[in-house]
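Table S2 (continued). Query chain:
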Amino acid sequence: MNYPPSYYTYLYSPYDRYPIPAAYYPVYWVWNRDYPQVDTKVLSHSVATSQTLLRDAALLVQKLADPAIAGQLMSNAQKGNQKEVDRIIHTLGIESIILTKFTPSVVHFTIDPRVPDKQCCEIVLSLKWGK
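Corresponding output:
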């Protein structure tokens, strides 16, 4: 048979159409990346503040272990009385700001630091109280 020359002579490699396997690429840690210097001031502040928030969360759980307080909180939540629920929570002697949301099955407490303009951290505590 008399084929044209392009069928049996390759001016390019037939393998150029296939991607290069990943083993031939340089590993990702070899690439030159410039990162800013690490500053731990904000993290240190968040850690110190979160320790206070964790103490307040522990105090909240300790107070809610009292059946009288728990029953009063649940009965007002069942009636949908958000103001009374907030009043009960604020009379527990907790220094942080506590936002309360509840459903028939779960109560959510969001504990924030007292400084609202510098929001560094928060703790969300969810407690199941129904089926």
